[in-house]
Amino acid sequence: MRRLAAASLVGTAVEFYDFYVYGTAAALVLGPLFFPTFSPLAGTLAAFGTFAVGFVSRPLGAVLFGHIGDRRGRRPVLFVSLALTGAATVAVGCVPSYAAIGPAAPALLLALRFLQGLGLGGEWGGAVLLAGEHAPERRRALWASFPQIGPSVGFLLANGVMLALSAGLSDAAFRSWGWRVPFWAAGLPALCGLLLRSSLAETPQFRELAETGGRAGAPLLEVVRAHWRRLLLTAGALSVGYAVFYAVSTWALAYGTERLGVGRTAMLGCVMAAVAVKGAATPFAAVMGDRYGRRPMCLAGCAACAVWMFPMVWLLHTGRPVLMFLAIVVALLAFAAMFAVVGAYLPELYEPRVRCTGAAVGYNLAGVLGGALTPVVATAASGGAGPPWGVAAYLAGVSVVSLGCFALLPETAPGAVEAGRRAAGEPAPV
Question: In degrees to the nearest 10, what's the CA dihedral of 272, 277, 280, 281?
Fold first, then answer.
C-alpha cells in the first residue's frame, strides 16, 4: 500500500503541477504577453478564459479515460494521462508571445491548455481507484487521500518555482523568459512518474471483473441511464471545493498583486504556506472520514465555507500578509475536510463496473461548475474601491448549493453503513 500510495501521490502531484503552473502564469504574466491589445483587467480576464478551457476539457478526459479504465483497466489510464499532460505543459513553455506570431499565440495556448485538461481529467479517477481498490475497507479514505495530497504538492512545486524565479529575476527577465522555465521543468518529473507507474499491478476489483466478464460495454451510457441523479449531485456537491480553491489560489493572487499592490513574492508566499497546511491536514481529515463517515465531513466542510467567505474577503482586502494568510488557510482547511474523503467517497457511490467513469466524470464536471468560471467571475466582481463583497456572495452561494447536494447523497463508509443497518433492525448482508 505504501508503494501504491506513493505512485498515486507522485502522479497527481506532477499532473497538478502542470495544471497549476498555468493558473499562476495566467494570474501573473499571460495577459500582457498574449493579449497585449486588451486593458490590464481585460487581459487578465482573457488569460483566465484560457485557464477555464482546461476545466471544460477535463470532463471530456474523464469520459475518454473513464471508458479506458472501466474497459481496459485502471493502470493504462495512469500512464497515458500523465504522458499527455506532461507533453502539453512542456509545449506551453515553447509558445511564442503575441508580439512574435500574432493571434496564433493565444490560439496555440488555448489548444495546449485543452490537452492539459484532457489528461488531468483522466488522472484523478485512475489514481484514486488504484489506491482505493487496493486498500483495506476500513482504511480506504486514508489510503485514497494520498492522491488528494498530490494537488497540494503540485501547487507548492509550481508556485515554489515561480516564487524563486520571481524573486531572483528582474521583472523584465521574468516576463521575457523566466515564466517559461516552470513549464519546461515539467518534463523531468513527468518522466519519473511514468517510470514509477510502469511497475504497478492492476487493482483486484478490476481483475475480478475481467475474469468474470463483468465489465461494462458502454460505461458512460450505463452511468447516465442508471446513475444520472447521483452524477449531477456529486458534480454540484464538489463544485464548492473547486470554487474556493481557485478563488484563493488564482483570483486572490491576481487581486492581491494587481489591485492591492501586494508584492508578488509576498502574495505567493501567503498562498503557498496555506496550501502546505492544507496538504498536511488532508490525511488527518481522511482518518476522521474513515471513523465518522464521508458525508458528515463533507457537510461540515461545506458549512464552514459558507460561513467563512465574507470574513475571508474582508481579511484579504486588508492587504496585510498575515491576515491574508489567515483568510486563505481557514478556507483551505474547510476545503480539506471535504476533499480529503472524496477519493474514497465518489468511487464508493458506483459499482466497480462503471466506477472509473462515474467517479471521474462527476469529479471533473464539478471542476467546470466550480473552477472554470470562478477566477473570471471573481475578477469581474472585484471592481470598486471597497472589499469585493460580490466575490464573497458568489462563493457563499456556491457553498450553500453544494451543501444541499451533499445532504441528498447517501453515506458510503462501511462502518457507518453497517451501523445504520443495525439501527434500522435490518439483517446483515450474506
Answer: -140
Grid cell locating 199: 511497475
Angle between helices 414-423 and 264-292 (to 10 degrees): 40
Contacts 24+ apart (CB under 8 A), 213-220: 214/352, 214/353, 215/70, 215/71, 215/353, 216/70, 216/71, 216/353, 216/354, 216/357, 219/66, 219/67, 219/70, 219/71, 219/353, 219/354, 219/356, 219/357, 219/358, 220/63, 220/66, 220/67, 220/357, 220/361
DSSP reduced 3-state for 370: helix
Comparing C-alpha atoms, which of 62, 6, 58, 409 is closest to residue 246? 58
List the one residue out of 68, 2, 3, 5 whose CA is nearest residue 356.
68
Instruction: Give the C-alpha distances (Å, rounded to integers) separating 269 from 165, 261, 324.
Output: 13, 15, 10
Torsion of CA 282, 287, 293, 299, to 10 degrees: -30
* Stretch 225-231: mean pLDDT: 92
Measure the CA–CA gap between 284 and 188, rounded to whole angstroms. Answer: 31
Tell me 149's DSSP state: H
Report the chain's C-alpha Rg in angstroms.
21
Helix (H) or strand (E) holding 91: helix 74-92
Q: Give the contacts of 46 (CB within 8 A, at least 6 positions apart).
A: 31, 34, 35, 38, 106
Alpha carbons 254 and 379: distance in angstroms, whole number: 8
pTM: 0.83
Lowest pLDDT segment from 27-36, 145-154, 158-167: 27-36
Cell of 211: 475474469
Please tell me the distance from the alpha carbon of residue 428 to that of residue 418, in angstroms, as a whole number.
8
Q: For residue range 31-53, what is the model confidence (pLDDT) as tens digits?
A: 778 877 776 767 777 777 776 78
DSSP code string of 271-285: HHHHHHHHHHHHHHH
